[in-house]
Amino acid sequence: GGATFAIMTSLYQSLRARGLSQHIAWRASFAIVPAPVLIFVAVLTLIYGTDHPAGKWSERHNIPATEIANEQDHEDHNDSDEKLDEKKVHDTSVTVHPVQKIAAIDVAVNERLTLKAAFKILASPLTWLPALAYLTTFGVELAIDSQMSNVLFGLYSKTTPGFTQTTAGYYTSIFGFLNLVTRPPGGFVGDLLYRSFGTRGKKVWTLFCGLIMGAALIARGFYIEDHHTSTKSPSLATIMGVFSLAAIFSEFGNGANFA
């Protein structure tokens, strides 16, 4: 996120100052910062993470969704190649209370993957909706993170003394740091809307966030185009204000997508 982006740019400048080439310094920055962090998180996930929301992978069928699906004559395929040790598996009773509305996603159960099942999954809008929402929220963040520092550096390096690539990286890292305070509320609002309006409420909230984000990004582009000349740069405060607005609603939408 933002911390990694800011640290990597600072480290890159430090390595360049020590005499490393651009190619080597950038590759070393990847090895020194992101790689150890990813390995550390992977180890924590391996130690403390669960195989499945129900706990152990062998107990993945002991969830209310399975009971509901069975009542609806849904096929429940247990993996035949898994031999469960009866001494290690505890009997699990599941009490299902009748409800008036159940979303299709709430009764999803584990099934053996076949070509027929794969086609059914790919043909379902429920598969593509969260994927496309993720693409247009977090995907936008990744696209901006990869290019925003270059844009800022190109705009202000010649007109603002001391505006280096590192400075541009610090400004760009705002997008990532905002995740700490914007993504959770986006998911919280999505959950609140779901209680009253179901999945439609979450979809409308996600689309609303996407529209605000898109409008802000388009406005920023027009502003830069209209105010950038060879001798004058657009207001950095205005650009960062619109940039932050787009970031906030991008991450609101991303949080809603996870909700």
UniProtKB/TrEMBL annotation:
Domain of life: Eukaryota
Keyword Cytoplasm found: no
Keyword Transmembrane helix included in the entry's annotation: yes
Main localization (coarse): membrane
This protein's UniProt keywords: Membrane, Transmembrane, Transmembrane helix
Pfam families in the cross-refs: MFS_1
Listed transmembrane segments: 24-48, 204-223, 235-253
GO molecular function, one term: nitrate transmembrane transporter activity
Subcellular location field: Membrane
InterPro entries referenced in this protein's UniProt entry, alphabetically: MFS, MFS_trans_sf, NO3_transporter
UniProt cross-references to Gene3D superfamilies, sorted A to Z: MFS general substrate transporter like domains (1.20.1250.20)
Membrane topology classification: Multi-pass membrane protein
Gene Ontology CC terms: membrane
Family: Belongs to the major facilitator superfamily. Nitrate/nitrite porter (TC 2.A.1.8) family.
PANTHER family assigned to the protein according to its UniProt record, in alphabetical order: HIGH-AFFINITY NITRATE TRANSPORTER 2.3
Name of this chain's protein: Putative high affinity nitrate transporter
Source organism of this protein record: Laccaria sp. SK05034
Taxonomic placement: Eukaryota, Fungi, Dikarya, Basidiomycota, Agaricomycotina
